[in-house]
Amino acid sequence: MALPHLTESNGSIVVLSSLTGKVATPFTTSYSATKFALDGFFWSLRHELAMKNIPVSITLCILGLIDTQSAMEKIKDKISMPAYPAQDAALAVVSAGASRVWEMYYPWYVRPICFIRDWFPQSRDWMIQKSYQQASDEKQSVPK
Hints:
3-stranded parallel sheet; alpha/beta; oxidoreductase; 6 helices; signal; globular; 5 strands; 15% strand; Rossmann fold; disordered C terminus; oxidoreductase activity; secreted; 56% helix; single chain; two-stranded parallel ribbon
């Protein structure tokens, strides 16, 4: 494992995750499960490293919808929210890793959604379902 090298160099681990690893969304069951697993694994590892005074930084990057070909293909006609530029997301990831922050949220709307996840669960679920319903409604209303 890379841990001895990371320990010697006071290294960093930067983890790319997703909003769907913090807040469950429709049509993302398998993907969401893997991202929730990342969250749990790396938070547990962070505790273990801290308890052993191992100076390795772990940054979880919680990303929303990013404009990449694979993401756009998977969500096509399913969601009505803007995708944010991949280059801006990459810059935010690099900056967060260099700053050794515990969590980074990109774009702007990801942090508030994570906040309301626990405090206002019905509002959270309504917003999520509404964003998917709008995309579904728009698809159905397109003349053929």
